[in-house]
Amino acid sequence: MTRRVALLGSINVGGNRVAMADLKAAFAADGFAGIATVAASGNVVFEAGEEPDAALASRIADLVKDNTGIDTFAAVRTREELARALSDSPFAAGGADNMVHVMFLEAQPDAAAFARLAADHAGRGPERLAPGDRALHMDYVDGVAGSKLTRDFIERRLGCRGTARNVRSIRRIMEAMER
């Protein structure tokens, strides 16, 4: 069994309210083991066999929709992949843990998509961006709340969905995955 995390998009934001106990129960009913949630934002740690990440992501998205009615997706990652995302971030070492984010993407956009995102964002705000491995690294500098660098803006340009977590949250998830 491999320990992974499902980073669910659109959970407990924008009116999509889900109790973490309900998510845990849905995962258990679908045969997952070692289930734990981290914070109330759709981070579900679990153990599963050697099923490929893409198949797990699809299975998890279906179980969330079937049990909550929320159309979401899951970015499935191992602890090592989370650690690599942090170490690959050009902003994590020098930025504030609550301002530096990694958006975990459902697929790897091509270089042209990242270039389009950067070009379209130029002049819209102080945020800094860098591509990663199925990830977008971001430093929100002045805060997320007033930023024009929104999930919808990013997803339209990259051509795939993503869900972001700040450095502090990623570290908490990694700690939970060690248990």
From TrEMBL:
It comes from the Bacteria. Pfam families: DUF1697. InterPro entries: DUF1697. PANTHER family: BLL4334 PROTEIN, DUF1697 DOMAIN-CONTAINING PROTEIN. This is DUF1697 domain-containing protein. It comes from Aurantiacibacter spongiae.
